[in-house]
Design goal:
It is a single chain. It contains five helices and six strands, in the order αααββββααββ. Helix 1 crosses helix 5. By secondary structure, the protein is of the alpha+beta class. The N terminus is likely disordered.
Length: 176
């Protein structure tokens, strides 16, 4: 069962329609963390529990350059219109080399998302909000395949973080 964070709030529906209009026209949307937390009715405890997951990401052992600088987990969800979203079985993530010159053509398997990340309030409300926003952008409810791969790349004064060693995203995803 999913939770509709905008349920019963006509101002919330108007807000998501405004966000969708902006996203369609500008091709980006910025919502501050505080504003999103308020819209999703999140408590500081909800947010703290969600944030703690970034400290439990595990080493990505599938980097094409042998790098040991990225920590991540991976998961996928199926979200058909009118039905509850469900998490798909864990498996490899494969991108063609022309989309990802560093890690393409490698069936990458990283540790799965923790149950304590996928079941609580924050992720469920966020995914509900995002699918509602994207449905609004599309003008109709769509069937969404959601790939979720939180990652952390440590950096400090002595070591620069290597956020995107594969370069600019070229994953071939379209909106049609």
């Amino acid at each position: 069962m999913t939770h509709d964070p905008l349920e019963g709030r006509s101002v919330g529906i108007a807000l998501i329609e405004g966000f969708a209009c902006h996203l369609n026209s500008q091709q980006f949307l910025f919502v501050s963390g505080d504003a999103l937390g308020d819209m999703l009715a999140l408590t500081p405890e909800d947010i703290g529990g969600f944030a703690a997951h970034w400290l439990r990401l595990t080493l990505d052992r599938c980097m094409g350059d042998g790098g040991t600088y990225r920590f991540r987990r991976d998961g996928a969800f199926d979200a058909p219109p009118g039905s509850a979203r469900r998490q798909l079985p864990h498996g490899p993530h494969l991108q063609p080399r022309y989309n990802n010159s560093l890690n393409g053509d490698i069936a990458r398997v990283v540790d799965p998302l923790e149950y304590t990340l996928t079941s609580p309030t924050v992720l469920n409300r966020l995914l509900d909000w995002l699918t509602g926003l994207y449905d609004q952008c599309e003008g109709r409810a769509r069937h969404w395949n959601i790939r979720l791969h939180p990652y952390r790349t440590p950096a400090n004064q002595d070591e620069k973080g290597n956020l995107a060693p594969e370069g600019l995203r070229r994953d071939g995803v379209t909106t049609s």
